[in-house]
TrEMBL record:
InterPro entries: FAH (IPR051121), Fumarylacetoacetase-like_C (IPR011234), Fumarylacetoacetase_C_sf (IPR036663). One of its GO terms (molecular function) is isomerase activity. GO terms for biological process: carboxylic acid metabolic process. Belongs to the FAH family. This is Ureidoglycolate lyase. Keywords: Lyase, Metal-binding. Residues 75-281 form the Fumarylacetoacetase-like C-terminal domain.
Length: 294
């Protein structure tokens, strides 16, 4: 199943997507709620809606403004170095243990919302990433059982402010500027994708300019390993988000000159079988102007 959480004139709802059309699941059953948490915490709810979906009215996907798949994720964990060629282009050694960092809630936004280049830096970079949404929580999850803990897969653009990322051995500042991490718009359940979402083409671009192009089969640590590794040190909870790292081709590694995102551009991240996460880029001063006007 492919889901879209989004806003219409009737409010925020969860939609089941079929091609260019969608069915409002929240209208069919209010217990679904206004984000994916209703379906995540009640696994049988989707099955109970199947017959209703077939007979329900459709609305165009284009009429829905995307919202975050999970409105308030408890934890957002990100892989920093998970594709060999990306590690090499950044000048790092291949680590024996995954490079992990966390993002805060103010750093993320829904697909389609502006990605904000901060006033203190012009080094806003893009990172195409697969992201998983935890369905069933747990601690000390085995690799063998790890995929049982995945609700679905979505798209993440791990927008990074590179000079602030390099200010410290910990990457927190560069990875947590407000409104730099786009998520969505679609979430696809595991039964509609290859096991562990492996073997999917992943690409970033601005217009016709292809910035990154790789395949999720090239990840060093796959979904099973990442879930098992993360759950060694923390209890995963339903609705947590885990980003799986980016392939080579990021802006700071472009030669002879870095390729930073600029206001006025729209950056797209596409993952085969899931969809496209598009984000217009704006300058922070323009973002503040819009807030003041509202």
């Amino acid at each position: 199943m492919k889901y879209l959480v989004g806003d219409t004139s009737e409010g925020t709802a969860v939609f089941a997507v079929n091609g260019e059309n969608a069915v409002n699941l929240t209208a069919l059953d209010p217990t679904v709620g206004s984000d994916l948490m209703g379906l995540i915490t009640n696994p049988g709810l989707a099955d109970s809606l199947a017959a209703k979906i077939a007979a329900a009215d459709n609305v165009p996907v284009s009429s829905i403004t995307p919202a975050l798949p999970v409105a308030a994720p408890g934890t957002i964990i990100c892989m920093g170095l998970n594709y060999t060629d990306h590690i090499k282009e950044g000048g790092y050694d291949i680590p024996e243990y995954p490079a992990l960092f966390m993002r805060g809630k103010n750093s993320i936004m829904a697909a389609g919302q502006p990605m904000v280049r901060p006033s203190c830096s012009d080094q806003l970079d893009y990172e195409a990433e697969l992201m998983l949404i935890v369905g069933k929580g747990g601690r000390h999850i085995s690799e063998q059982n790890a995929l049982d803990h995945v609700f679905g897969y979505t798209i993440f653009n791990d927008g990074s402010v590179r000079n602030y990322q390099r200010k410290t051995h910990q990457w927190t500042p560069g990875k947590n500027f407000d409104d730099t991490g786009a998520i969505g718009p679609f979430t696809v359940t595991p039964d509609d994708l290859p096991e562990g979402a492996s073997g999917l083409k992943i690409e970033s671009r601005v217009g016709s300019e292809i910035l990154q192009s790789s395949n999720t089969a090239n990840m060093i640590w796959d979904v099973r390993k990442v879930i098992a590794t993360v759950s060694e040190y923390t209890t995963l909870e339903a609705g947590d988000l885990i980003a799986m790292g980016t392939p080579p081709g990021v802006g700071h590694a472009k030669k002879p000159n870095p390729r930073w995102l600029k206001p006025g551009e729209t950056v797209e991240i596409e993952i085969e079988g899931i969809g496209i996460c598009a984000s217009p880029v704006i300058d922070e001063k323009d973002a503040k102007s819009k807030v003041a006007a509202a």
